[in-house]
Amino acid sequence: MTESLNADPRNGGAPRCPLRDGAVPLYEQAGSLDGPLWEELRSRFGRIAPVLLEPDLRAWLLLGYEENLHVLRDRSTYSRDTRRWNEIRDGRRVLGAELRPTMSYRSSALYADGAEHARLIAPIDDALSRLSDARIRAEATDVADRLIDDFCEHGRADLIGDYAMMLPAMLMNRFFGLEDAYGYVLGELSAGLWLDDGARAAESVAQMRNYFGGLVQRKRSAPGEDVTSWMMAPEFGMTDEEMADQLVLLVGAAHLPTSNLIGNVLRALLAEPATAREFASGALPLNDLVNHVIWTEPPLPMLAARFPTRDVVVGGTPVAEGEPLIIGFAPAHADPKLGRPGGAGGSALDSGGNSAHLMWGAGEHRCPARSLAERVVGIGVRRLLDRLPRLRAAVPADELAWAPALFSRGLVELPVLFDPVEAPQREAPAPPPAPAAPAAEERPDDLLTRLLRWWQGSGRSRRSAGD
Ligand code: HEM
């Protein structure tokens, strides 16, 4: 901490709390969280910066690679439980709508510590380990192909809305054991959570409850060979409510980061000529391209949050018990102490071979689906490149806009052109039970039926789910 931060000239030079004074309003910069900002914070504050997540909502942002890794790993000192947030706990603040999806407590593994975490993560670990390589490959390829079929004859597409945002949600829906019609619904509802449109976000939350409640209902009565049914195995003793919370976590954790990573890899290929050349020449393998993107445009620039269980000193700065520490993946990846593997002007070949980034987390809460996510991203990118001849950007790189979000780094749109190709005939995926069928009418409590009926009536769907 520098002297200028400790002494407040307006207060006769008395020491002041850096978290209270001079905190940087990050919420004003959502969408432009990148290199110059991290450099500015580093030069002003060093290894950890006081920031505002909302007007008057203070947090610490970890800027250094070592500090981030230390906090992620030290589970006895840094809790993941958002109920420990001192200002919220003491009733001094309530969370605004934007932060609620990432910061509100839910009884899922993500917010649990120690033994409770071990209990809640066990069914997730078990279910993910039962997804065979062959099944992941077959399902991911089929979902990718069906999404590409929807636009390959048009010669143009938005690779974010038409593809990257849909693929992980459709795939998770299949792994959960539901028909594709619900995957379209899930994809658009889950994407709706991140929109600025508060009314639509609230509607998405309400309908997601029907999705997860209905999924649990369905699998309790008719289990199958799927993630939901495996997680419900008696040895895990999960209640319906706990099941729904863990499924919400799975979709939340799987959807946007994977969508962003697919989109950011495609952006690098379409908007960074040097990277595209290195990839096309074969010098930059796909895995290394993904690493390069993780270093330079991590799909989660920041992560909420860890709460010290006692007063601590981090990066030379005192942090009080219960003050939120935001994990800074993007600033950590640009930490000059690392020799900047993905630094400005650096070649993708320099950063790509280096996989020591923090993108999969570390310690107790590290991502349990790293290899699944890597395979899905690889298949998603490869299928698109294999199927669309002469794929090219439809707008100049500087017209591509990042979505205005604090905890997510993904493009709003990625418009592309390509030579149109005919969509092959495919066997239709299994249809969902028809909502208007008498059986469904007799079961008004069937939440999935209610969801699909709402969906078909809402007229918002870009695809006719269930037709
Ligand atoms: C590019 C894609 C992905 C990235 C970058 C990513 C990254 C991460 C990170 C950084 C964490 C640590 C969270 C923390 O420490 O607070 C995490 C946790 C988690 N991820 Fe992933 N993830 C991705 C994809 C997935 C997928 C596809 C799934 C599920 C199929 C998944 C499931 C989870 C779960 C359940 C947790 C919570 C683990 C716990 O709290 O113990 N993730 N992920």
Task: Describe the 3D structure.
By secondary structure, this protein is an alpha+beta fold. The chain has a domain at 111-297 and 359-458: Cytochrome P450 (Cytochrome p450, Orthogonal Bundle). Helix content is 47%, strand content 10%. The chain has 20 helices and 13 strands. The protein has helices spanning 3-6, 35-45, 65-73, 86-89, 100-103, 114-129, 133-151, 159-164, 167-176, 180-192, 198-221, 227-231, 240-271, 273-280, 286-296, 329-333, 348-352, 370-387, 438-441, 447-458; strands at 7-8, 14-15, 24-25, 48-54, 57-62, 78-79, 156-158, 302-308, 312-314, 317-319, 325-328, 392-393, 415-417. It has a 6-stranded mixed β-sheet with strand order 3-4-5-11-8-6. Strands 7-13-12 form a 3-stranded antiparallel β-sheet. Strands 1-2 form a two-stranded antiparallel sheet. A hairpin with a 2-residue loop joins strand 4 and strand 5. Helix 7 crosses helix 9 (167-176), helix 9 crosses helix 10 (180-192) and helix 11 crosses helix 13 (240-271). The termini are far apart. Residues 80, 109-110, 121, 124, 249-250, 253-254, 257-258, 261, 299-300, 303, 359-361, 365-369, 372-373 line the site of protoporphyrin IX containing FE.
What are the main properties of this structure?
single chain; 467 residues; alpha+beta; Cytochrome p450; six-stranded mixed sheet; 20 helices; 13 strands; 47% helix; globular; disordered N terminus; binds protoporphyrin IX containing FE
